[in-house]
Design brief:
Helices cover 35% and strands 20% of the residues. The chain is of the alpha/beta class and 257 residues long. The radius of gyration is 17 Å and the shape is globular. The protein starts with 6 loop residues before the first strand and ends with a helix. This is Pimeloyl-ACP methyl ester carboxylesterase.
């Protein structure tokens, strides 16, 4: 595994796959996926604006800014062909909006647990209110416990963005909670037009216990878009790639084969 700028790039001559993380994430959340897929696949997973080690960027955190960043990255990579794009949560919205905007860059879509609607009443809680949540702590364990005390049962996904602070000591998060509020609100909306706006093959991964992609909506989004398959993951929630990493890698491999 190697890092090229903010994010990860598994390298090699395998089939390229762009992987876009969701809110609160970073490219490193796909290290297990990259390891499971390698060396047949080259996973390119950038830290997106406001996340990880991505340097500050102008323009705010609206969804179109994220799409423009992904478009720019693929253009700069100049791989000579369209490639498959994997997107989790907000990353999935970015992925299918990119496919609608630049079909010449995207050969296939793998959308992990997000639909074409991210708003009430379809989604009970489209935005997690994280204002004022703890961002630092003396130890990694203490930071995880503080985040869980603030309102989530399991801080594992958030802790993927926790790093030691060599100057001040202790642990800190790579993102800012207020920024994450802007990021989340940027993804709220009705995105049916974008979801139906591309024609490349698509695979939707749906967690059985997901709170962000209700089962009826998952079935509707696949039924309405030609060339789209739905794959259910029993016993999982929103973070399928963490909860069933082997199954996620197998689904990606078989779909792109």
């Amino acid at each position: 595994m190697r890092r090229t700028g903010p994010g990860l790039d598994s390298g090699g001559d395998g089939i390229p796959l762009l992987a876009l993380h969701g809110s609160f994430g970073r490219g490193a959340v796909f290290e297990r996926l990259a390891a499971d897929l390698g060396p047949a696949f080259r996973v390119i997973a950038p830290d997106q604006r406001g996340h990880g080690h991505c340097p500050p960027r102008e323009g705010g955190f609206g969804i179109d800014r994220f799409v423009a960043d992904a478009e720019r990255l693929l253009t700069e990579l100049d791989l000579g062909r369209p490639i498959a794009v994997f997107g989790h949560s907000l990353g999935g919205i970015i992925a299918y909006r990119l496919a609608a905007h630049r079909p010449d860059l995207v050969s296939a879509l793998i959308i992990e647990d997000v639909g074409p609607v991210m708003r009430r009443p379809e989604i009970a809680h489209p935005v997690l209110d994280v204002r004022g949540w703890p961002a630092t702590a003396p130890t990694r364990e203490a930071l995880a416990a503080a985040i869980e005390a603030a309102g989530v049962p399991d801080a594992t996904y958030f802790m993927a963005s926790a790093v030691q602070d060599p100057e001040q000591g202790g642990w800190r998060l790579l993102f800012d909670w207020d920024t994450m509020m802007e990021v989340q609100w940027g993804g709220v909306g009705d995105w049916w037009e974008a979801w139906l706006g591309s024609s490349c093959p698509a695979l939707v991964l749906h967690g059985e216990h997901s709170t962000l992609l209700p089962a009826p909506l998952a079935r509707e989004m696949t039924a309405r878009r030609p060339g789209t398959r739905l794959l259910e993951f029993p016993g999982t929630g929103h973070w399928i790639h963490d909860e069933d990493p082997a199954g996620t890698a197998r689904a990606v491999r078989e779909f792109l084969a």
